[in-house]
């Protein structure tokens, strides 16, 4: 049974940092691309970052977070991370982990990030 469980969200001041985690089970993350999405209040869900399978390990970012966010994976823990630095109020959103496994597209329940002074 595939599961994705996000954690690490919280309240942070502008300019601060957070590291989100996505613990996966039921599959091996090193064999699939992994992605982070976010959904701000009243807005549609948007793609934030992605990382390809370990053999290439390429990372990709939305323009809005490029240079501030870093996606990575720790295969031994079957976990994907999103390091978020220089956070802005517009980064406030529910952050979701996503994994296309086989014919299914799996999502976690999300972790809330609030950037406010």
Task: Give a description of the structure.
- This protein is mostly beta strands.
- It has no helices and 11 strands.
- It has strands at 3-7, 10-12, 18-25, 34-39, 46-51, 59-61, 69-74, 79-84, 93-101, 104-107, 111-115.
- Strands 2, 4, 5, 6, 9, 10 and 11 form a 7-stranded mixed sheet that branches. Strands 1-3-8-7 form a 4-stranded antiparallel sheet, with no helix packed on it.
- It is globular and about 40 Å long.
Rg result: 13 Å
Number of helices: 0
Uncertain ranges: none
What number is the mean pLDDT? 96
Q: State the major sheet.
A: 7 strands, mixed
Percentage of residues in strands: over 45%
End-to-end gap: 40 Å
Structural class by SSE content: mainly beta
What is the number of beta strands? 11
Q: Helix coverage percent of residues? A: under 10%
SSE pattern, N- to C-terminal: EEEEEEEEEEE
> Given the C-alpha coordinates, what overall shape results?
globular
């Amino acid at each position: 049974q595939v599961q994705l469980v996000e954690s690490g969200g919280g309240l942070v001041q502008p300019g601060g940092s957070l590291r989100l985690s996505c613990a996966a089970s039921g599959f091996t993350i090193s064999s699939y691309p992994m992605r982070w999405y976010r959904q701000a209040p009243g807005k549609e869900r948007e793609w934030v970052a992605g990382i390809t399978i370990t053999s290439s390990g390429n990372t990709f970012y939305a323009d809005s977070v490029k240079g501030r966010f870093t996606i990575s994976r720790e295969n031994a823990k079957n976990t994907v991370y999103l390091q978020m630095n220089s956070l802005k109020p517009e980064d406030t959103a529910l952050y979701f982990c996503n994994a296309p496994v086989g014919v299914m597209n799996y999502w976690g329940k999300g972790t809330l990030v609030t950037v406010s002074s």
